[in-house]
Write a structure and sequence with these properties.
By secondary structure, the protein is α+β, with helices and mostly antiparallel strands. About 40% of the residues lie in helices and about 15% in strands. The protein has 15 helices and 13 strands. The protein has helices at about 35-60, 65-80, 80-120, 140-165, 175-180, 185-190, 190-200, 260-270, 300-305, 345-365, 385-390, 390-400, 405-415, 430-435, 450-465, and strands at about 15, 20-25, 205-210, 220-225, 230, 245-250, 275-280, 285-295, 310-315, 320-325, 330-340, 370-375, 420-425. The strands form 3 sheets. It has a 6-stranded mixed sheet with strand order 1-13-12-9-10-11. The longest helix is centred in the N-terminal third of the chain and has 41 residues, at about 80-120. The relative contact order is 0.11. Mean pLDDT is about 85; it is low at about 380-385 and about 505-540.
Length: about 550
């Protein structure tokens, strides 16, 4: 006898924390040859200091303390300035912390792979797997190759654990990918000089943290409301200044067409704004990024967000399926589909995703809802080739779903449209949506897809409703033969997914009559059956 299948516990929906960071960009147009020379010199000088500081921080490892931090900052101050030194040390600690988190994630991935291989090696060759666990390997040769791979992964995991316990991290300023490109210039289509230009530009340091209370929110890289940019030169380059107080003012001006009014309000109030100057070597263009943190974002309660309904969104490898649901969980209007193409380079993929989200949020804002409901997805374990073996198409499909980028982009863009994000448990949304909503929502002119039905399931879960809204109709032999649809079951009613049972104690019914009149829970049509005046129906409805 087969064991009864048990469903895993569904986590409660929650309101995702809004993105509180803002970053805008404008091009530095009209730079003279002297301006570019000065910016290159400052970037190279500060980049060398940043590389040296990062190497010193990596040597400290877990023995780092506030005293060592202060000592490093004093050394950098002598060769730059106190604010330049603060920006360098802050960036160093952020990069070291990111490397530690990536190291921990790498260990988890290796451990997951080794567990899967051990499980599959313990099974007989050719044994089939289940939906929750993979089966044995298909041949003795594959079993042997995977046993060798297990030894490699275990050795690699031991090395990474040893590095983590010792506080060692491996960081490449400029990026490991670009560093490895040096050994494959032909495949990358670059010459050595072209690669050298990109490598040097990626290692420059022209970033300055903001400081509230100071003039225009930044003393190192200052931008006035009319767009004039000035840079505080490091001490060894002070002779290159063309303005007072050791500052250099290039000829270019910025205006920040996107969100320029918000930026201008901040700097006029002397609130902190961080700036970064960088060179796009491929386009030969200089850019200025301005970023700041918003701390006054409103936090809306989940019940308030549900009052106006939601837009359920199902994320897929090539499109977003969305449907507007009212407060009762009923689909409103027509479903929407927002396509994107995640092939090509990173800039193209990011632009495609941003365009799809822009269309989604504009439509959602027009419906009058206050929140977007999405699944709290994380396919980290499912991407492993150790779990799916040769199922490359499945791995590529799972990897193609932009879970991380979608989450960060959606949170950042929702704040601009005044929308919140409700994250729901992704368990069974596609399965139950297809089972309970795909067929009822299909019409002669519209065939509802599985993804659109999943969007309805996601929206209902965000609203606190069960995905299956109504119980099954009564059987044909009962007294009300197909006379009505079954009633709405509340979320706290026990057995709301079961067949409605008749009320046996008719004296407790809300519409019960007194005297010799017949008692019924609902009004019955006037038929011949009503001629039975005093007899109480005692048929067994079990």
């Amino acid at each position: 006898m087969s064991e009864k299948k048990t469903l895993r516990q569904i986590a409660r929906p929650f309101v995702a924390d809004p993105a509180n960071g803002v970053c805008i960009r404008d091009r530095l147009k009209g730079l003279t040859a002297e301006d570019e020379t000065v910016l290159r010199l400052v970037g190279e000088h500060m980049g060398s200091l940043a590389s040296r500081d990062l190497a010193s921080r990596c040597r400290d490892g877990l023995e780092h303390s506030t005293d060592t931090w202060a000592a490093r900052k004093r050394e950098l101050t002598a060769e730059s300035s106190s604010r330049w030194a603060g920006s360098v040390t802050g960036a160093t600690h952020a990069q070291w912390g990111l490397s530690r988190r990536a190291q921990f994630a790498h260990i988890q991935g290796l451990e997951s792979g080794t567990r899967t291989i051990r499980h599959r090696l313990s099974l007989p060759v050719g044994e089939k797997g289940t939906r929750k666990a993979p089966g044995g390997y298909r041949s003795a040769h594959e079993w042997f190759v995977k046993s060798r791979r297990l030894a490699v992964l275990e050795d690699r995991a031991a090395q990474v654990r040893a590095d983590r316990e010792a506080g060692r991290v491996h960081v490449v300023r400029g990026g490991r990918k670009l560093a490895n490109t040096r050994h494959n210039l032909t495949a990358a289509g670059l010459t050595e000089a072209q690669w050298r230009d990109r490598w040097e530009a990626s290692r420059w340091f022209l970033s300055a943290d903001g400081e509230s209370g100071k003039r225009y929110g930044n003393e190192t890289i200052r931008v006035t409301p009319d767009g004039e940019v000035s840079v505080k030169l490091p001490a060894p380059l002070a002779e290159l200044a063309n303005s007072g107080h050791g500052r250099y003012t290039p000829a270019a001006r910025v205006s920040f067409p996107h969100r320029g009014d918000e930026w201008r309000d901040r700097i006029e109030a002397n609130r902190a704004v961080a700036y970064r100057i960088h060179l796009d070597v491929e386009r030969d263009r200089w850019y200025l990024d301005a970023s700041w943190t918003r701390k006054d974002l409103p936090r809306v309660a989940l019940d308030s967000l549900r009052a106006g309904g939601v837009v359920g969104v199902d994320t897929n490898a090539d499109h977003l399926a969305a449907w507007h649901l009212d407060v009762h969980g009923n689909p409103v209007g027509e479903p929407r589909r927002f396509d994107y193409d995640l092939t090509g380079n990173a800039n193209h993929r990011d632009a495609q995703l941003r365009h799809a989200l822009t269309q989604l949020l504009r439509w959602a804002a027009g419906t009058g809802v206050q929140a977007i409901a999405v699944e709290d997805l994380d396919f980290t374990d499912s991407k492993s080739r150790e779990k799916h073996g040769r199922k490359k198409r499945l791995r590529q499909l799972i990897s193609g779903i932009p879970t991380g980028r979608l989450r960060s982009r959606l949170l950042a863009m929702c704040a601009e449209y005044g929308l919140s994000v409700i994250a729901v448990d992704p368990a069974y949304t596609s399965l139950w949506g297809d089972q309970h909503w795909r067929k009822p929502l299909s019409t002669k002119t519209r065939a509802t897809t599985r993804h659109q039905a999943a969007a309805v399931a996601i929206g209902r879960r965000a609203l606190g409703h069960p995905i299956r809204r109504r119980t099954a109709p009564p059987r044909a032999h009962q007294s009300d033969v197909h006379g009505h649809r079954t009633a709405q079951a509340g979320p706290g009613v026990r057995g709301r997914e079961e067949t409605r049972r008749p009320v046996t104690d008719r004296s407790q019914e809300p519409h019960a009559r007194t005297g010799n009149q017949r008692t019924r829970a609902t009004s019955a049509p006037k038929t011949v059956r009503d001629a039975h005046s005093d007899r109480v129906d005692l048929h067994d409805h079990s």
